[in-house]
Amino acid sequence: MMIGYVTIGTNNLDGAVKLFDDLFEIIGVQKLWQHGGMAAWGTSREDIALCVVRPFNGQPATLGNGNMVALRMKSRSDVDAIHAKCIALGGTNEGKPGPQGNHDFYGGYFRDLDGNKFNAYVPDG
Fold first, then answer.
1. What is the pLDDT of residues 71-88, one digit of tens each?
2. What is the pTM of this model?
3. Is 46 within 8 Å of 3 (Cβ atoms)?
4. Domain ranges of the chain
5. Are 51 and 42 spatial neighbours (Cβ–Cβ below 8 Å)?
6. CATH class label, 5-55+68-122
7. Cα gap 111→23, rounded to integer Å
8. SS3 sequence, the chain?
9. Which residues pair with 39 in a beta bridge?
10. CA distance 120 to 108
11. CA distance to 37, 86, 102, per residue, from 13 (Å)
């Protein structure tokens, strides 16, 4: 399976764009584009992207229980940095960075300003 992009909803596009601009800057990921009620971040248009959007149907963005976006990092220090940065920008902690489970997976869980859940991780910590 190939993932092209992941889309999460927002009720505050300006706030979400600022949060993700600031958050992803620390790991060298830039906004690829923004138009209308949508913006996307990634390393290139050929790689996987994260998109934030005002829902097309005009209804409020709500959380999907169990939905999460996992962001693969290059190092444990990147996991620690992006987790701390999101909290500093007003996000919430959903699980501090550290080893997870009975293997070398290292991850930190957080929610953005709209409550969307993320995991920053390195699979072999």
1. 999 999 999 999 999 999
2. 0.85
3. no
4. 5-55+68-122
5. no
6. alpha beta
7. 12
8. CCCCEEEEECCCHHHHHHHHHHHHHCCCCEEEEEECCEEEEECCCCCCEEEEECCCCCCCCCCCCCCCEEEECCCHHHHHHHHHHHHHCCCEEEEEEEECCCCCCEEEEEECCCCCEEEEEECCC
9. 34, 52
10. 5
11. 7, 16, 38
